[in-house]
Amino acid sequence: xxxxxxxxxxxxxxxxxxxIVYDYWRDPSGRLHSLLRDWEGRPVYFxxxxxxxxxxSPEVVTFCEGHPEWHLLPSYDTVRRxxxxxxxxxxxxxxxxxxxxxxxxxxxxxxxDVGVSTVVELPDGQDAGRAVTLYHAGDxxxxxxxxxxxxxxxxxxxxxxxEMEKLYxxxxxxxRKDYPRLDHAFVPVDPRLGQEMLRGPLQLLKAIEVRNxxxxxxxxxxxxxxxxxxxxxxxxxxxxxxxxxSQD
Length: 248
Hints:
It is a single chain. This protein is an alpha/beta fold. It has a single domain (2-243), classed as 4-Layer Sandwich (Metallo-beta-lactamase, Chain A), CATH 3.60.15.10. It has five helices and 14 strands. Helix 4 packs parallel to helix 5. It is globular and about 50 Å long.
């Protein structure tokens, strides 16, 4: 399995006989377009967690319209707010629902923002009896803005910090019921949260055993790869704006 960082919240995952592309927005390095050329004629799935501009590009619609073997799985709010033809998606993601494709199983969960978070089970290429689990948060996070940083985004949060934290922990409990262990977690590590930007990711690590954590919302500040030795003790490995693909 290959996991390839594209930009912002977009990761591409090669495994289980398919390519999964999460939350494509921009491709400044051209890495995704190069990858898609390699996947011409093979199954590609574009998963969109929500309609926010930095998690969605209308280019994914163009991709799927021109390739019958490429599929779009947008969240319900993306279909509505981005006016996607309802005949195009392979499935529309709503929290609590399960989608079974030829290549993987997906379950959608709530988000503390809009749209959904998702867990995908992909067949393990090395162990036919085991699935690799991929959690993509979308914008599901503990948006615990420091009180002094309202201008950085806290003004958009409609609940108190305590209410936000309770909501986030509730979503994590829902995920943990189904998946007490995750192989890969793609989560926001958002600089706008200042000293609280690791609050949500660390709460995830405390609630669920996570083998590998991949940060999102992090471009321009250097790249992190968090490989967790224990649920509560992440180890930081790697730096620099260009992150190589990881293999599992």
